[in-house]
Amino acid sequence: MLRVWGRPTSICTQRVLWACVEAGVEFELTLASATMGRGGHISTGAQPYGSVETPWYRAMNPNRTVPTIDDDGFVLWESNAIVGYIAARYARETLFGDSEKTYALASQWMSWTNQRLEPPLHTLVMELSRLREDLRTARAAASVVEAIAPALDILDERLGHSTFVAGDAFSMGDIPTGAAVYRWKVFGLGGPPTPHIEAWLTKLAAREGFRRHVEPREFQI
Fold it and tell me: What percentage of the chain exceeds 90 in pLDDT?
């Protein structure tokens, strides 16, 4: 059984758990975090899940971040690398059509998500939900819409020509991208009209991994 260290509210952990469901891989999730716990963010006085500061965890992941996996002794960190590994080992046909080109295109959109969507989304969730209120700044939250709108235009254009991000079949590339865009939608800050993204999200919402590990609102705030 695949061992996963992370937390349900971590969008990076969500990617890995969703990929496990798509690949039919059983997993055991151990809660771990330096900043979040059952009571919320440490800035509010909540106790973090912990584990990441321990010597044994740092030996696995010197970054002390989540998620990290252990697959029968094979240890890996960085969520996109983990999703790619799960796809390549357990679900080549399901998650990239057993095609090197599809794998590359999916990886392209996974990297793009980290570069173009994740930074403003991190600001968004911290400023509107997780930070103690006196630590939040309205200016930082307002900057998110301006930062993310051009990226949504790029993605919407792509999805106007392709059912999913890497082609006409669902792939691993839809997992990080879909989780990120859904988080944006949960907070409802507006932005440009994106009809193709809306149609794509409807398709993703029908997938079990999305319903279990991304859709619950309590995982987004």
Answer: 91
Tell me where in the chain the CATH 1.20.1050.10 domain(s) lie.
97-207
Q: Which residues in the chain are classed under CATH 3.40.30.10?
A: 2-94
Look up residue 123 and give its amino acid: T
- Nearby residues of 86 by Cβ (< 8 Å), 6 or more positions away: 2, 16, 19, 20, 23, 25, 95, 172
CATH class of 97-207: mainly alpha
CA 70 to centroid of chain Cα atoms: 19
Instruction: Report pLDDT digits (tens) over 155-190.
Output: 999 999 999 999 999 999 999 999 999 999 998 887
Fold of the domain built from segment(s) 2-94: Glutaredoxin (3.40.30)
Radius of gyration of the chain from its Cα atoms, rounded to whole angstroms: 17
DSSP string, 146-204: HHHHHHHHHHHHHHTT-SBTTBSS--TTHHHHHHHHHHHHHHT---S--HHHHHHHHHH
Q: pLDDT of 185-217, one tens digit each?
A: 998 887 789 999 999 999 999 999 999 999 999
Convert 24-42 into a string of H (helix), E (strand) and C (coil).
CCCEEEEECECCEECCEEH
